[in-house]
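Translate structure to sequence.
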């Protein structure tokens, strides 16, 4: 079986698609024949990525400015996929924020923001796509967690880890509830080169993260991992993948 055929023609919605893992994954899946629906806040970036994908042979991409903290905007993104392509096969809930700081800095605004993006944004994506998947009797959720959702990233990453643990729990519960025709995959990246590392306003933590990320591996490693999960036959559900630099201990 040529598994690449399991990607060609699929309609894939991606949040956080204007850079990093989202952008790289969009380009990679488009190169394998997927129809891509890009969502993120930076509309100019989305337009550029979409145009470049469409300029490739058989490349198909559309975009919609999307803030995942606004459930109506996430719903509009998924609805656009149906309007443009008639279906949704995969939603990649990728948008994320990593604001690292010790708890005693009490950065409540950043805690709220991480909860809104990392947890509620994933839930909004699930809420938008699930009725469509159930009607189709097929679909694939891919939720981006983190190695920080397996082991608490401390000091400084306590709340971030909490949000990523939540993504794992939600994903596993979702799998139990809707598994069968609907697949659920959780990806737990380690240090991957992306804009995620720029999310900290606390100087000491930001400096630590900058140094820590010197061993990061390219975002293309995640794109290939996501493609692997999507391209499996429909009776195969790849539930969880941890991927990190070979030299990363955490």
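Result:
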């Amino acid at each position: 079986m040529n598994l690449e055929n399991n990607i060609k023609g699929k309609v894939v919605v991606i949040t956080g698609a204007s850079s990093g893992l989202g952008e790289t994954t969009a380009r990679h899946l488009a190169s394998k024949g997927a129809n891509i629906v890009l969502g993120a806040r930076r509309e100019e970036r989305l337009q550029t990525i979409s145009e470049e994908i469409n300029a490739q042979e058989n490349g198909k991409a559309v975009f919609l400015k999307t803030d995942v903290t606004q459930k109506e905007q996430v719903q509009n993104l998924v609805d656009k996929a149906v309007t443009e392509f008639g279906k949704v096969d995969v939603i990649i809930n990728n948008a994320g924020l990593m604001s690292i700081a010790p708890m005693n800095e009490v950065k409540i605004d950043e805690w709220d923001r991480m909860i809104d993006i990392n947890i509620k944004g994933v839930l909004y994506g699930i809420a938008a796509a699930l009725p469509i998947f159930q009607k189709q009797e097929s679909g694939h959720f891919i939720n981006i967690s983190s190695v920080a959702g397996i082991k608490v990233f401390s000091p400084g990453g306590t709340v971030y880890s909490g949000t990523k643990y939540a993504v794992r729990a939600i994903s596993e519960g979702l799998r139990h509830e809707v598994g069968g025709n609907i697949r659920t995959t959780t990806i737990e990246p380690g240090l991957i080169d992306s804009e995620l590392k720029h999310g900290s306003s606390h100087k000491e933590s930001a400096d630590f993260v900058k140094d820590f990320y010197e061993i990061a591996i390219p975002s293309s490693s995640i794109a290939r991992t996501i493609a692997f999960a999507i391209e499996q036959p429909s009776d195969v559900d790849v539930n969880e993948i941890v991927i990190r630099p070979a030299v990363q201990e955490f």
